[in-house]
# Entry
Amino acid sequence: MNRSNLGKGLPEQAAKPLFQTLAVVGVGLIGGSLARAARERGLVSRIIGIGRGRENLRRALDLGVIDVMETDWDRGIRDADMIVLATPVHGIVHLLPKIASLCGREALVTDVGSVKGSIVREAERTLPNPGRFVGGHPIAGTEHSGVEASFASLFADRKTILTPTERTDPEALETIRKLWEAVGSTVVLMDTERHDRVMGFVSHLPHIVAYALVHTVYSADQREGNLARFSAGGFLDFTRIASSHPEMWRDICLMNREALLEAVESFAHSLDKFKEMISRGDGPGLEDHFTQCRRTRADLLKTAR
# Structure
């Protein structure tokens, strides 16, 4: 990770804080990076880190990511005017009822999960003022996890998707939009169903493919031995995301099951096409397919910027 560019691409520091007290539940890569960015941009006066593990919270405190560490949920939540849920996605669903009994009606609540449908539904079912919840998903991250991996410019020049509903308070949406724009993101609004289907193809499927490729090579290595030591840059680059946190990806697969299964079936169909062309020795077909895919990737790179 190149830390020499930290801070580049971020907007100017805010004239006054957006929030007095920001409570981050789950101070890992995403939650920690948002806390760092919010502090660096002057968006918040005080940051409380909330979680079960005192060791991780102590590291966050020592690193200056948070001002206060708290394992008592009542003390951590009750005074916050902005609450960010940054645990694994399955944990967010289970946290929402607990948050509901502790946060004030005017407190803003958002999350950073990469699956939105079940989280937004639970928020609107349980929170005392559902309109103050705005589902969020920053399209940013690395294969690393933990507060030590966090850095303030993680969201610079990245997209963040917000998923408001008919019940969302327009003022709440605008404030959450300002938060993400202030830390460098371009904000895109999307409904939850569309979000989960898009992520199933462009984010969740690539992780499954990377894990599957690593497992395929591992299985062959167990049979034949010494395969992995011949892996070069292409294999390592392609499978980098298979170093991601297993618990997080277990939850994502299960919570976005329908969209992910559609994406996996589509990928299997594409793989079968390659298998068929290789089997019949169709050189021209392979070359045409590779050329088409190369052009498509070039177009994707343009639209991704």
About this structure: The chain has two domains: 3-190, 195-304.
